[in-house]
Amino acid sequence: MPLSLVNDCVGRELALVEERFNRELSSDLPCVNTLVRHVARFRGKMLRPTLLLLAGKAAGQLTDEHITLATVVEMVHMATLVHDDVLDEAELRRNGATINHLRGNEAAVLLGDYLISHSYHLCSSLSSQFAARAIGRTTNAVCEGELLQIDNRNNLDLDEPTYIQIISRKTASLCATCCMLGARYAGAPERHIRQLETFGLCVGIAFQIQDDILDLVGDVATVGKTLGIDLDKGKMTLPLIHFLRTAPREHRELLRSLLRGDEPDRLERVRNLVLPGNYIQYARNRAAGYVARARAALDGLPDSEPRSMLDAMAEFVLSRPL
Amino acid sequence: MPLSLVNDCVGRELALVEERFNRELSSDLPCVNTLVRHVARFRGKMLRPTLLLLAGKAAGQLTDEHITLATVVEMVHMATLVHDDVLDEAELRRNGATINHLRGNEAAVLLGDYLISHSYHLCSSLSSQFAARAIGRTTNAVCEGELLQIDNRNNLDLDEPTYIQIISRKTASLCATCCMLGARYAGAPERHIRQLETFGLCVGIAFQIQDDILDLVGDVATVGKTLGIDLDKGKMTLPLIHFLRTAPREHRELLRSLLRGDEPDRLERVRNLVLPGNYIQYARNRAAGYVARARAALDGLPDSEPRSMLDAMAEFVLSRPL
Are A139 and B148 a contacting pair at CB < 8 A? Predict the structure, then answer.
């Protein structure tokens, strides 16, 4: 999906979000501002603010509270990225040198805490408790998803329902809340709020499945980030889960021994084992199923450009190149 | 101060806080509950809930919202303790074995996040945004204090005003907020709310100065925790700051070289250097000054048992044995 279309639709609002984001994080302490500048390297496509703003526009009228809410969800997301950096110690060490004289782990823990604190503080400036309660419930779920994930590290017997539960909490819950809040603060009827929440949940699940596929079989140059991280972290993802359930016995044994080992060419060997079968396709089909559910959830919403954008975003999840 | 007196005064409420604390943190995921059980090893004297409840009782009537608020501040405090464990990697390694099969750093980061998320979620269940806004402002300040502290790690030229600023934000801001919220939610007049906030701030500063003195020159058996941590972390505290400003030149040079080194008997040598002078006494006098300001801030509050308790708590800060 060309980014320019999203920009036509909510570009002005996204610029306001960026402005508010930077303003809220500024401190009277120079050392804090120095650290906050490092958040920039985590900034991405502002997917979550975009979902929130498009959902609001698709379901009603945007208000200034939408800018605040979109800033809040971006801060929450940034905080999880920053703390993921601590969880993934290797990654952290690699970037450590850029975080000045601050020690890597400490800087990442405190910067994440600073972001989450500011997100809640900003959220509590709204006229009602509704959003704060929803954001708190969502971050509870995100933490639980992360905890369930590390509890299943190196668990080669992880089943598909548990995998879906992990990514639903860890990733999709925030997307669902974005769409729900966008719609509610736009004055949408309850039915549309629920539909958009379902849309966000399903898009979030599909997005994470696709992200996990890319981590396994994507091309570094195309995807543009380090791959194979899930293997290094002992994270079981859908293609592997399906492989270990359905592949011929000796193939399954081979994969299990590869996953238990730490040969330097492990990623390559896992790819060669998994790619020939229909395991990647199975995972893509599962993602496609969630995309279809997301798009179906838009039924009955008034025809509009922002609604088309949401539809296109859902489709785009599947078309991200391997 | 005998704990039984506090218990007579707010013991019933503290039991309710403990109950709500445990209830709020329980999850449908067994792995989360397993991890949360480790929070128990951080549980202490519930100083912050006690301040909040006594301030409320000293200034007006306690309500059910006080139980919620006291639970919130305890969760915030626990979260900072758990994340401190990550910052202080050595300490963490020592306790790591008790955190099951979860890796130490990850468990501590996520457990802290889980606590802070639940504290905000619980806070947003109150009838107004007021407390959530105050808690968010306070956690912003706590993060800034921590960041200022690590920015000044190994800074032998740290001056006293910056030291006071660090401990004001890192420690005293939450104590101030406890007393302020306790009073406000008890329906106290604005004047009393401000007085109790000042009381909490000054007690918090005095408490941290005394804590830092104990870390340097306390007796392990009496204090009941590992000492000398500040030296290991490169944290400059008030006795050392005063020493480096006023001691004879050759003594200052010796301390600087000890602080820069990492001899195994460093703590012992620093103690031997600092103890003979009036440096500890200077720091104790500064703490005593804040205690006096705290007690003076109670002037004009109605005479009552909870007011006497607050007064006694302030005095107790100074009497903690070395």
Answer: no
Query: Which of B114, B123, B139 is the closest to A117 by Cβ?
Result: B139
Residues 6+ positions from B4 with CB-CB distance below 8 Å: none
> Which residues of chain A lie closer than 8 angstroms to B117, CB-CB?
116, 136, 139-140, 142-143
Reported as a single tens digit per residue, the pLDDT across B127-173 is 999 999 999 999 999 999 999 998 999 999 999 999 999 999 999 99
Do the beta carbons of residue B279 and residue B261 sit within 8 Å? no
Q: DSSP letter at B37?
A: G
Virtual CA dihedral for A154, A155, A160, A166, nearest 10 degrees? -60
Of all residues in chain B, the one with the smallest CA distance to A130 is B124
CATH number at residue A242: 1.10.600.10
CB contact under 8 A, A132 and B148: no
Query: Does A117 sit within 8 Å of B105, measured CB to CB?
Result: no
Instruction: Give, in order, the Cα–Cα distances in Å from B244 to each of B147, B228, B251, B255, B271.
Output: 23, 18, 8, 8, 14
**CA–CA distance, A243 with A267 (Å, rounded to integer):** 15
SS3 for A127? coil
H helices within B185-278, ranges in order? 190-217, 220-223, 229-232, 238-246, 249-260, 266-274
The string of pLDDT tens digits covering residues B228-251 is: 888 888 899 999 999 999 999 999
Q: Does pTM surpass 0.95?
A: no
Number of domains chain A is built from? 1
Take residue A290 and report the two structure tokens written for it: 């969630």
CA angle B184, B187, B191 (to 5 degrees): 65
ipTM: 0.92
In whole angstroms, give the CA distance from residue A106 to residue B283: 28
Write out the residue range of the structural domain in which residue A296 sits.
3-319
Interchain CB distance below 8 Å, A129 and B129: yes
